Amino acid sequence: MGYDIERFVGYVNEGLLCSICRDVLEDPLQAPCEHAFCTACIHGWLVHHSNCPEDRQMIDVSLLRPLYRYMKNDLNRLQLHCKNREFGCEMVCSLESIDRHERECEYSRIPCSNAGCTVQIERRNLDGHLAVCEHRSRECPNGCGYTVLGAEDTQHNCVAELRTELELLRSEMICRVEEAKHEMESRLDSQRRHMVQKESVLQNEIEELKSQMSRMMSDVRSLMAAERQHRQELEQAELEKREL
């Protein structure tokens, strides 16, 4: 649907009206036959038809194009009243900037930000409404530190709330202690396994060193025996030399 033509100030060219809804073009598209439509209007039309609603020429969604630049400029320059005129807004601005204004308009009706509140209030009156809204939240006046809704004031019990909070904190603390305990046990087990592996490696190295030492001692004894044998042979040879 387009913009209600009654909102516009001054004359609006016929070529800037949607051929379907007859309001001023909103988010316009143009057919090859140069007839223009609101995007929502022509898409809805083509669900049930395959031709232009003006001259009945065959058209398809793929053939629709943006409005000519000069027509788009003429459209954007049109002046119109804010949609909140009936609520008191007197703003008149160009079509190009109307959406931005209406998003920020003080007369726009917006929902209350408090959970559970269904009231729609003008933006300019929102602060006043929030101050008295029965769904507003505030800190407990008795000093327990809890945030309560106005509608829950009669049901709020400081002692019960604090007891519940204490139980939650105790449960959380127990869980954290158990987690820390499991983590420490896991670390200790890991370190214990590492130490056992390291001890096993060291023990193997010691056994290897002992084996090497044993072989070296055996070699030394063999060398000493060979040396004694060699000395005896030398002495025997010296003795025989003397006898000769």
From TrEMBL:
Every RING-type domain range: 18-56
Record flagged with keyword Metal-binding: yes
Gene Ontology BP, a term: regulation of canonical NF-kappaB signal transduction
Organism, as annotated: Tauraco erythrolophus
Zinc finger (TRAF-type): 101-144
Coiled coil regions, renumbered to chain: 192-243
Protein name as annotated: E3 ubiquitin-protein ligase NRDP1
PANTHER family, alphabetized: RECEPTOR-ASSOCIATED FACTOR, PUTATIVE-RELATED (PTHR10131:SF157), TNF RECEPTOR ASSOCIATED FACTOR (PTHR10131)
Highest classification ranks of the organism: Eukaryota, Metazoa, Chordata, Craniata, Vertebrata
Keyword annotations: Coiled coil, Metal-binding, Zinc, Zinc-finger
InterPro entries associated with the record: Znf_RING, Znf_RING/FYVE/PHD, Znf_RING_CS, Znf_TRAF
Record GO terms (molecular function): zinc ion binding
Domain TRAF-type span(s) in chain numbering: 101-144
Pfam family, one: zf-C3HC4_2
